[in-house]
Amino acid sequence: MTSTGKARGGERPAARQKRVWDKAAPGYDKQISFFEKIWFGGGREWLGQRAQGRVLEVAVGTGRNLPHYPADVTVTGIELSPAMLAIARQRAADLGRDVGFQEGDAEHLPCGDASFDTVACALSLCTIPDPAAAIGEMKRVLVPGGRLLLLDHIASTWPPVYAAQWLFERITIRAAGEHFTRRQLPLVRAAGFQLVETGRLKAGTVERIHAVKPA
Ligand SMILES: C[S@@+](CC[C@H](N)C(=O)[O-])C[C@H]1O[C@@H](n2cnc3c(N)ncnc32)[C@H](O)[C@@H]1O
Question: Any residues with CB less than 8 A from the CB of 145 and at least 6 apart, and which?
Answer without folding.
Answer: 212, 213, 214, 215
